[in-house]
Amino acid sequence: MTRLTIICTSLLPLAAASLRAGAPVYVALWFDTEDYIEPAADDAAVRIAHDLTGLGVRATFKVVGEKARVLEQRGRWDVVRALALHDIGYHSNFHSVQPTPALYLRDLGFVEGAAEFERREGPGALDLARIFGVRPICYGQPGNSWAPQSNAALRHMGIPVYLDEGSQVGLNDQPFWYGGLLYIYNMGRFQLRAPLDGDEPAAKSNERFERAAAELRSRGGGVISIYYHPTEFVTTEFWDAVNFAKGANPERTAWRRPRRRTEAESERCYGILHDYVAHAKDVPGVRFVTARELLQLYGSPAPPPVERARIAAYMSARQTFLAAEDGVLSAADMLLRLLGIEPEVVDGPATRMASSPDGANIPRAAFERAKTDAVSFIRANKRLPAAVWIGSDKLSIGDFAATLAGDDDAAAEIVVRRANLEFERYFSHEPRKAFDWPIHPEGFSAPELLELGKLQGWTLKPARLR
C-alpha cells in the first residue's frame, strides 16, 4: 500500500467523525524545524514528535535543508524516523544565512525571481526528499522573508501547499488559493498557541482555543493554525537572532550557540504543549490534520462551471473572486472563461502597465485581434499579460478584462471600461511592517514584492472545504 493510499484511507474515518460532530474544525499543528546550530534542538524535535505520536496526533514538521543535512552528518536518524511519522514540509535551504529570500528577490521580476528562488532553494528540497524519503508537501518562508515569485517555483518543484504565517496577503483569516497553491497563511484570530513563557494560565489558552473552534463551527467549519519551533523548548533565544540579526552574516566558524533552558524549564514547556494539544483534541468536532490532509480536504483550485453571462456581469464591474454555489472562481479563472480558454493554473501579470488609448471606443475587428493575441500569450507563457495591444495602443490587463466582460459580442465598436481591481484590498500596504524580521537588515522594506504580490492577486480566491 502506498503512502498516498494510507493517507487517503485515513481521511475516511476523519471525515465521518467530523460529520457526526457537525461543522468540522481542523487544526494544523506545525513546527519550523530550523536550528542546526544547537544540537539540543535535535533532541527537542524527537521529544515533540514522540509525544504527539503518543497522543495520536500527526503534525507537520517544516525542515530547513541545512537542518536535514546536519542531522545526516550527526547520524541523528532517530530524529529523521520520528519526524517521518508525521508530515514533512520545507522551510528554505539555509533559513537565516544571508541573503534571505526577500532580500535576493526584492529587485528581481516575477519570472527571473521564480528561477532564482528555485536555484537557491531547490537543492534543499531535494536533500529533504533524499534524507526523509518523501517530497515535502508544503513550504513556508523563513521569518517574514516572503516573496510571490516563490509560488511559481514551488509549483514547478512539486510543492502544492504554502503553510506559514505573515501579513503580506490574507483572506478572511482562513485558507485560500493563491498562485495555484493552497495557502494556510495570515490566519488572524485563528492563529493560536499556548505561550511557553509568561504567566498565562492553561485555562486561558484553552478557553481561547474553544472560542475559536466554536466560531468556526458556527460558520460551517474551518481551520485553526498552531505553530512552534522545537528549539523554543530548549533555548531561551533563537539561534539565528544571536548570529544573523540585522543582516549580519558571520563565517560558520564564528557562529554562537543560543542560551539553553534548564532541564526543568524544558520539561515545563513540553508539558504545556502536551496538555494544550490533549485539550484541543478533546474539544467536540476538532480534528488535527497535516498539510497533506488539508490539501485532500480542500481539493484543487479548479474553478466550478459558471454561466458566462454571470461572469461577464460580475467582471465588468469589479475584478476579484466570485463565490458561486458549488465553488469559487478567481479573477484569472473568469478571464480565461471569457476568452474561451480551458481552465488551468496561470500566474498573474509580471509587471503593471497603464492603458494608452485616447479614444473611448475600439473597432470590433481590432478588439477581436487583441483577444486572439491575449489567448496566444496566456497559452504560451501560462500567465496573464500585463497589457493587451490594440494596434499601437494598449489596454492594461485590468482594463482589458473589464472591457471584455462588458462586450456584447455584437456592437461594431467596443466601449472601453476601466479596471476595478478589488482583489488588491487583500494585500498589505505596509512594505516595512510586512517584512519586519530581526534577521533582515535594519529598516528593510520591500514595496516591490508587495506590488508583485498584488499583480498575482488575479489568482486569489477563498478555499472551500469539500
Give a written overview of the molecule.
The protein has 466 residues and is an alpha/beta fold. It folds into two domains: 18-300, TIM Barrel (Alpha-Beta Barrel); 308-344 and 356-415, no CATH class. It has 16 helices and 17 strands. Strand 1, helix 2 (40-55) and strand 2 form a beta-alpha-beta unit. Helix 12 packs across helix 13. The model is unreliable at 1-21 (pLDDT under 50).
Write the topology of this structure:
Blueprint lengths: L2 H19 L3 E9 L6 H16 L4 E4 L1 H10 L2 H8 L2 E4 L10 H5 L4 H23 L5 E2 L9 H9 L3 E3 L12 E3 L2 E4 L6 E2 L9 H17 L3 E7 L12 H4 L18 H20 L3 E4 L1 H8 L9 H8 L6 E3 L2 E3 L1 H9 L21 E3 H18 L5 E4 L2 E4 H10 L6 E3 L31 H9 L5 E2 L4
- Tell me the major beta sheet: 6 strands, parallel
Helix content: 40-55%
Mean pLDDT: 94
Rg, Å, rounded: 24 Å
The name CATH uses for the topology of the largest domain is TIM Barrel
Quick overview:
The protein is α/β, with parallel strands linked by helices and 466 residues long. The chain has 16 helices and 17 strands. The chain has helices spanning 3-21, 40-55, 65-74, 77-84, 101-105, 110-132, 149-157, 202-218, 241-244, 263-282, 291-298, 308-315, 331-339, 364-381, 397-406, 447-455, and strands spanning 25-33, 60-63, 87-90, 138-139, 161-163, 176-178, 181-184, 191-192, 222-228, 286-289, 322-324, 327-329, 361-363, 387-390, 393-396, 413-415, 461-462.
